[in-house]
Every structure is written in structure tokens, then in C-alpha cells.
Design goal:
- The structure is a homodimer.
- Chain A is an alpha/beta fold and about 220 residues long.
- The longest helix of chain A is centred in the middle third of the chain and has 16 residues.
- Chain A is built from eight helices and twelve strands.
- Chains A and B meet through helix 4 and helix 5 of A and helix 5 and helix 7 of B.
- Chain B binds a DNA duplex (30 and 30 nucleotides) through helix 4, helix 6 and helix 8.
DNA sequence: TAAAATTTTAACAAAATGTAAATTCAACGT
DNA sequence: ACGTTGAATTTACATTTTGTTAAAATTTTA
């Protein structure tokens, strides 16, 4: 489900967005109007559609309604590209069944994080739950960790770290991988940094959940 | 509810709009002044009224107020037709209970998409309410905030900001996303701007509702 | 047991946020 | 058109929270 369809009448916008999303590893399809967009949506079944609201002939709302009405396309996530907030298109968009909206002009970072959020929503990755008797819930949208229903505050890095480990319970994450994911590829921080964060996590969520695999890395087991 | 009533003293405008809307499949009624318009509104109960602001004898604002005061017509959507961007008439229009406004000269495409947006909007659809025992009601249409039923005045930005946060209670909104939604991404504002607005909001609606999630953003929790 | 790897501590650095006050800006009434 | 007013934004710090490091202590492994 890494395919994204852009429906926008403005070629520049299509290209800019496409360029950025491709760089992020998505497969990108483009359509320059509603009719073409609907056709491609049916044919390729993308995971997400970025849909311009203001288009000549058939506006985004209408496209959205048509997509929602069709069995083939009704479950595809739709994110509107709206002019700006004064406009009622946002509200109308939600009525029409949009999953989210992003204002134009679009900043790549914002778009990308919204897209991730939307795609996360149905993959279930948003809420990571360990086995039922333990009751650890990680909710990315709320940036919140619940242990036995008790909300626990985690600073950013700790949260990201835990989210990563918990994303595949039982799997070992090498230190390199952790650095890459939580800290980012360019940033150079010392090796100990991970350890310290691990320790803080253990303090907060109990010592047993995170195990160290000497020489390799860490793993999270509920 | 596909009937639209046009109230405008200018025959040409009535005809042009009428022509376009008929083509779109609406049933169109016409009236050349306020008195006639009100009469037809009561008789035919249209789904929407396009109302010229500037008319001799009885201006649109007045017509609007009368329609809003009458049980028979008070729920009819009203969209003002205003000459150029006289912000004054827009504001006055909203005060009088308008649902939207469109500037003249009217572009068919714009008008048509606005109309769709208005008709799609169900009254009350965008009242954001915190949980029932709490008492924060945000009404986007009326640009109004009620706390314990008391109306509280919020300036535009503060209102938009609160509305955004409250739109998904508990979810964290990243600063980037807030900027993009409330300010729009062309405009570059300083780093502290969000904080200051948050602070003002907290002053007005109480310190506890808006929580900051350091490194990420803010969230609203009732 | 020595070597290697990890954990812990505590001190410090860096980043993010909060605040008050000043400034800029734009709408509105006159 | 002009001044008033309130809103929006910036400024300049204060404050708080987070992140990092270096070094010592501890544990593991060979």
C-alpha cells in the first residue's frame, strides 16, 4: 500500500509533490483531473489519494463522493489539498468523507508526516499493543503511552525509541538500526546515548520489557 | 432541496446566474427586491437564497435579518452576493446570519462550488464539543466559543488555533501542522508566535485544557 | 580472571517553551 | 483620510525539559 495518487490540475504541484514522495520511497501516480483520477484509482488501487479541492469541471468534493460511492475505491484514503482555512472546503471535505486535508502550498515535511499518519491509521501501527495481560498501548497520534491505562509521559527520543522497539515485539534491533531510525542518518551521536535512553525507558516502563542482546542490540518483549 | 432563490435588483445578474444554475440542474426562482424575495422564500421554501447586499429600498442585510427572524425561513441557507471585497458587508452579513458570501462579478465555477459547499453543510455539523460533562462548545459557522454556555470572544487566530486542536481532542498537533493550518505555509512567522497564542488561549479557557508535548506540539484535552 | 560490553551517574549542553513588553498591522468609526 | 483600538507578531530573555557525554561501576563472556 505504498502507492499514492495525486489528482491536481496544476502540473507544477503534481511534479513537486511527486518528486518529494518518490524520494520518500512511495510509488506515485498522477492525474490532471477528476475523470482521469477516478479511472486510475480504480485501475491501480492506490493506498492514498491526494486530491485537489479546486479543480475546473469536477471539483475534489465531487470526485471524493464518487470514489466513496464505488465499491472498488471506497476504502482508499483520501487527503484533500485545500487552498486555505477560510474556505469551507475543509468542512465540506470531511462531510464528503475525506480522511484529512493539507493546505496549499504544501510543505514537503508536513505532507509527508500527514501521509504517514493517515497510512498508519488503518495499518493499525498507530496503536501498538502488547499482549492483553500486560496492557501496554503506544498511540502515535496522541504521543502517548499507556501502561495499565495509566498515561505515562515520554520525551520525544524515548518515545520514538520505544515505538520502534515495540513495532516488532521480540525482534532485535541493532544499535545501528536504532540510530538510523530514531536519530536519523546524518546525525552523529555517541554510542552511549542509546544506552542512556534505554535506561530511562526501563525506569519508566519496568525493567523486564526491554532486553539487551549483547553485541547486537535491544528488543522489546511484552 | 435543490431550489435556489436569487434576490437581486439587477436583471442581468439574475439571468446570468439563473442560466448557469439551471444548467447545473437546480430549480431557480428569481426576485427583484427584498419584499418579493421574502414572499417567494416563504412560499417555496428554497434550499438556498442568493442575496444581493446592495439593493435599493431594502438591502440584503435587512432581508437576511427578516428571514432569520421568521420561523418559516430561518433555516434557509443564505449566501450573500457582495460587490468587490467590501469586507464591511461580509462581516455585517455574517452578523446577520449569512452562511457564506460570494463576490461580484460572479464566476459560475466559483459560485457553483460554493453553493455545493453550503448545501452540503448541515447546520451544526461543525460544532465541536468536548465531552458532555464539560462545557466547551466551538461553533465554526458562528465563529463562537461557549464555555459554560457563556460566549467568549476569541480573535481569529486564537479561534482557528483552538478549533484545530479541539477538532481531534487528545491528538497532538505538531507545530508544523499548526502553522500550516492556522497560518498557511506561505506566511512565515516567528518561532514564538504559536506559543504566544497558546498562552492567550490558556488565559481565556483555562490552563488545563491545552497541554504541551515538548518536542512535538500541543494537544487539547477536555 | 581478563577483556569486552553494558549500565549507571552525574554534570553539562542544547533545545524547546514560557512570558512580558514593545512593535507592527489592519479594521473601524469618526 | 485619520486616529483609535485591538490583534498579531516580534523581541529578548527566563525557564524548563531533553539530550549527550565522559567516566566509573557493573555485568557478561570468552
Amino acid at each position: 500500500m505504498k502507492t499514492i495518487l495525486i489528482i491536481d490540475d496544476d502540473e507544477d504541484i503534481r511534479e513537486i509533490i511527486s518528486y518529494n514522495l518518490t524520494k520518500e520511497g512511495y510509488t506515485v501516480l498522477k492525474a490532471k483531473n477528476g475523470v482521469e483520477g477516478i479511472k486510475k484509482a480504480k485501475k491501480h488501487n492506490p493506498g492514498l489519494i491526494l486530491l485537489d479541492v479546486m479543480m475546473p469541471e469536477m471539483d475534489g468534493i465531487e470526485v471524493c463522493e464518487i470514489l466513496r460511492a464505488d465499491e472498488l475505491t471506497k476504502d482508499i484514503k483520501i487527503c484533500f489539498l485545500t487552498a486555505r482555512s477560510e474556505d469551507y472546503s475543509q468542512i465540506a471535505g470531511f462531510d464528503a468523507g475525506a480522511d484529512d486535508y493539507v493546505n496549499k502550498p504544501v510543505k514537503p515535511k508536513v505532507l509527508s508526516s500527514r501521509i504517514k499518519a493517515i497510512l498508519r491509521r488503518d495499518s493499525g501501527a498507530n496503536v501498538i499493543e502488547s499482549n492483553s495481560n500486560e496492557r501496554i498501548v503506544i498511540n502515535r497520534d496522541k504521543y502517548q503511552l499507556l501502561i495499565h491505562g495509566q498515561p505515562i509521559h515520554l520525551p520525544r527520543k524515548e518515545f520514538e525509541l520505544l515505538a520502534l522497539l515495540a513495532s516488532k515485539p521480540g525482534d532485535v534491533f541493532e544499535r545501528e538500526v536504532i540510530l538510523q531510525t530514531v536519530w536519523g542518518s546524518e546525525i552523529v551521536v555517541g554510542d552511549r546515548t542509546i544506552d542512556v535512553h534505554i535506561r530511562k525507558l526501563r525506569e519508566k516502563i519496568g525493567n523486564d520489557s526491554i532486553k539487551t542482546v549483547k553485541g547486537i542490540g535491544y528488543k522489546f518483549t511484552p
